[in-house]
Design goal:
- This protein is an alpha+beta fold.
- It has 18 helices and 16 strands.
- The chain has helices at 10-23, 31-35, 55-68, 76-80, 97-126, 150-163, 168-188, 198-208, 212-224, 231-260, 287-293, 483-490, 498-510, 516-535, 560-587, 590-598, 601-609, 627-630; strands at residues 143-146, 267-269, 295-299, 305-309, 320-335, 351-355, 358-361, 373-377, 381-387, 419-428, 451-469, 472-480, 546-552, 556-559, 634-642, 645-652.
- Helix 10 packs antiparallel against helix 15 (560-587).
- The longest helix has 30 residues, at 97-126.
- It is rod-shaped and about 145 Å long.
- Residues 14-25 have a biased composition (Polar residues).
- The chain crosses the membrane at residues 100-124, 153-177, 198-216, 236-257, 561-586.
- Keywords: Membrane, Transmembrane, Transmembrane helix.
- Residues 62-79 have a biased composition (Basic and acidic residues).
């Protein structure tokens, strides 16, 4: 209201005020006239004197007051000079809500998108692509291995769960524009049933700030109140619940990521380069070295061991992991002395008759066979012959080391089978270790001493593929080789010299067994070693099939589900934020922006204590307070209506 400027003195003014207060004691506020619609909060507490002047005198006084205050009508000039100008609406267009909407939509979405981008960037840049590996630290299904410290990764992932709950107030502020538009529409059409009650308005304002306390009140009100929610309240509560659930889901996945992220790996594979696991051994003299340093046993589930050409235990660095192919031999032997009718009738005589292709007497080096044959005569007499069948009737190849070999015609290697049978006869010049051996039916003791027995062995050659990791071999797989491998072996074994010595040494090891079966099994293993060592010098070194060096590192094993879940929920959160921003822009107008600003604690306070209220088109809510325009002379205080009952009142100077 406007007040006239007069020339009365301060004493006269004070006297008039005292007189008015004495004349109006019955107008002091009470609870009764408060209940009759007297506004104690929204209106200023001013007391007016009651006089007995007539209506004509009152009209004349009003006209005089109007003339005296004409020069105080606000204009643009004196408005700029801080003259109070509150009742007239402020100039429209001074506040652009669209810029505010765009800024807060970006603030609600860009951080979550950035967090997802950072997590994916860390994963892509530091992801270790695993291969088929024998390492215990090999990645299990459902995990990523990254070369990035676990503590830093967890710290980055926790950004989302920390920020998401704090963005609820921003996204709810965006949705408030849609709420304000709906409230304007329902108010203009006077749809009473669809307007909120006073307490629902409290809930609406609290939900629009993202308050969890008001969200709980909203849920409790829905359970206990007899009043139905206005649709504006329902939609606002639903939006806040959705964003709170998204925040809880992000928090839960982040917690799961904290508990399941590990650092189990101490090393990983670096960039691979191919090299020879075994260098070329082209000299026939190297097979003795190969026998003891480069032959490796591997079990395939059968009674016999597979012996293949592999690296010496100290020749390959533990920092090298590789997959290679090589050759292997497996020999399975059984005693058949009784089947061959081996006996010791007199002196040193030990006749035998296994078949028409393998018979004779172990007393002397006499071998009656048309098959490929060989012998080793050192401390012991050991000789054998190769056959295609286990009855020793079909020779593997038709030549013998005891014959003139100048005109021998043999089959080419690729036409020969990769597996064959071998008949082996033994005559030992001294007894065997175990006292149980003389009682073994497959061991014959000649009259002049020593021991004799015959074995039937099946020999097979293989192409072997294996993996070496951390100094150990595994993932061994085999396929039968073609006949060339067996042909190479059989072309060397009949030759005198080193093969014979190695066979004798293998026999010395085998006869340490406690039975004929143990002797047969061990001799088969030793023979496979001899065969591989014979084959090794013939082959050139092969390049590895795959190879990687290992470098030490602290790696992190990250579970895929929670990590990708956080990324996806961050993106969903950002999309919802952008969607609400678009909805706010679509609903925006000067009137909607004014109502949206007024649906807040600021707006409620301005509506109660400011003359223009808290919803002024084109003005920010802060500009609805006179103190932000003219410096402010209004104060808010308490007025005691009755003992123990207080009201907020506006006090002016």
């Amino acid at each position: 209201m406007y007040h006239a400027v007069s020339d009365i003195s301060e004493d006269e003014t004070a006297s008039t005020v005292n007189r008015q207060e004495q004349q109006t004691p019955d107008l002091l506020p009470t609870r009764d006239n408060h209940d009759q619609g007297v506004a104690f909060i929204s209106g200023p507490r001013e007391h007016h004197a009651v006089s007995d002047i007539s209506e004509d005198e009152a009209a004349e006084a009003a006209n005089r007051h109007e003339q005296e205050t004409t020069d105080l009508r606000p204009t643009k000039d004196n408005h700029d000079q801080d003259v109070a100008f509150i009742n007239k609406p402020r100039e429209k267009g001074s506040f652009d809500a669209a810029k505010w909407i765009v800024f807060y939509a970006a603030l609600a979405s860009l951080p979550m998108l950035c967090f997802s981008a950072v997590l994916l960037g860390i994963l892509i840049k530091n992801w270790i692509e695993t291969v088929d590996s024998t390492s215990d630290d090999a990645v299990a299904l459902g995990y990523y291995i990254v070369d990035f410290p676990a503590a830093r990764l967890i710290f980055v992932s926790s950004w989302s769960s920390s920020v998401a709950p704090r963005l609820a107030s921003i996204v709810m502020g965006l949705y408030l524009f849609r709420t304000a538009k709906g409230l304007l529409k329902r108010s203009s059409t006077n749809e009473m049933a669809r307007l909120p009650t006073p307490y629902q308005l409290v809930l609406l304002i609290g939900l629009s700030t993202g308050s969890l306390g008001h969200l709980w009140k909203y849920v409790k009100y829905g359970w206990t109140s007899k009043h139905k929610f206005a649709s504006l309240i329902k939609s606002t509560g639903a939006v806040l619940i959705i964003f709170q659930l998204l925040g809880l889901a992000i928090f839960g996945l982040d917690s799961l990521l904290h508990f399941t992220t590990e650092t189990p790996c101490s090393s990983h594979l670096a960039e691979a380069y191919l090299a020879d696991a075994l260098r070329s051994t082209t000299s026939m003299n190297t097979h003795a070295l190969t026998l003891f340093n480069f032959t490796t046993p591997a079990s395939d589930g059968s009674d016999a061991s597979l012996i293949f050409l592999g690296p010496a235990s100290n020749s390959i660095s533990n920092e090298l992991e590789y997959t290679a192919s090589t050759i292997g031999v497996q020999t399975s032997c059984k005693p058949i002395s009784q089947l061959c009718q081996l006996s010791a009738p007199i002196g040193a005589a030990t006749p035998y008759n296994c078949s028409s292709g393998f018979y004779g007497d172990l007393q002397s080096i006499t071998l009656n066979s048309t098959a490929t044959s060989w012998k080793a005569n050192d401390e012991h007499l050991v000789f054998g012959a190769d056959f295609l069948d286990d009855n020793f009737t079909q020779p593997y190849n038709n030549y013998s080391s005891q014959e003139d070999r100048s005109d021998i015609s043999v089959s080419p290697g690729h036409n020969l089978p990769s597996s064959w049978y071998m008949a082996v006869a033994f005559r030992l010049d001294f007894g065997v270790k175990s006292s149980n051996i003389p009682n073994d039916p497959e061991i014959t003791i000649p009259v002049h001493g020593g021991a004799a027995f015959i074995l039937r062995c099946q020999v097979a050659t293989y192409e072997v593929k294996y993996t070496s990791f951390n100094g150990s071999l595994s993932h061994v797989s085999t396929t039968l080789a073609n006949g060339s491998v067996a042909w190479l072996y059989n072309s060397v074994i009949p030759a005198p010299g080193t093969p014979s010595i190695m066979i004798t040494q293998g026999t010395d090891i085998a006869i340490m067994g406690n039975s004929s079966a143990e002797i047969a099994s061990e001799w088969g293993t030793q023979f496979s070693r001899v065969a591989v060592s014979i084959l090794a010098p013939v082959y050139e070194g092969r390049s590895n099939l795959a190879e990687s060096t290992i470098r030490s590192a602290i790696l992190t094993r990250v579970p895929r589900a929670p990590l990708l879940g956080i990324v996806v929920l961050n993106i969903v959160f950002a999309i919802f934020g952008l969607l609400l921003g678009c909805m706010a822009l679509a609903s925006n107008s000067e009137s909607v922006a004014a109502v949206a600003g007024g649906l807040s604690i600021d707006g409620l306070v301005a509506s109660i204590f400011e003359d223009d209220g808290g919803m002024v088109e084109g003005a920010e809510i802060e500009k609805c307070f006179s103190e932000n325009v003219q410096g402010g002379a209004v104060r808010v205080g308490l007025h005691e209506e009755r003992p123990g009952q207080w009201d907020l009142v506006k006090k002016t100077q």
